[in-house]
Design a protein that fits this description.
Bound molecules: zinc ion
Distance between the termini: 37 Å
Largest sheet: 4 strands, antiparallel
Strand order of the largest sheet: 5-6-7-8
Strand content: 15-25%
Radius of gyration: 21 Å
Structural class: alpha+beta
Helix content: 25-40%
Length: 252
Amino acid sequence: MANKCAICGADINLVQQQKLADGNYICRKTCQKKGMKAYFDFIHSDLGQVQDHIKQVEVGTKIFNDVFVPAIKGPKKARPKQYGTGIFVLEDQGLMALARPDYKYFIFGKYYPQACVFRLGDLRGYEPTKITKKPDGTAADQNKKYIHFSFMNTMGLCDFDYEYSGDAKKLAKDFDTIFGIQKTLGNIKNTWKSQIDATKAVVDAAKAVASGDEASYEDKGTAAAEALDVAIYGDRTELNRKADAVLSKYSI
Ligand SMILES: [Zn+2]
């Protein structure tokens, strides 16, 4: 029985097809390859999510080659921080990227045919994790280590496990530093200040609710949520501003 690829319309047989959670099929040969198969879960995604991810890779690859590659080749101070072979952090631009190098092109220098670029400010989760299944549904090697990444405000690949054999604790510590999340006693003052701000905002919101002033408690509720966010995740305003300055040149 032949199906049609929901993206390119090609006729596909059982071996050539990838079934999505919504019952659509896409072709493995062309359309699945436009995504990052190692991280993106095609099995549990619907057609809309797959299309978002394909767009994310298309634009991400362009941004990576425009912004990250020149920085990689540039002066040492401006180079992105690199973790393992595929994680790049450009704090100055408020961006990070996941890129898959293709060593077939090694003679031309490292070449990155696929990349996803994220706003650093959207990064929420980066904890070490153990997984039982890979995104393609096959069993994962229990000896391998992974980091669970999650990003807010991100279409396509935004919640995934990344195989990482390096020091996950160091990577997490570096991200904490970027976000101003201080977990050591020596730096407790900043954390303390944002916790007090959050507490005040929550108290204000509670008062507004008690007073029954609807317009006021909507405002104060939002302020409380934002203050709590800063207390937990650090202040991302400046990172987002830098990232948006770069990303505004691309249609995302
Ligand atoms: Zn196709």
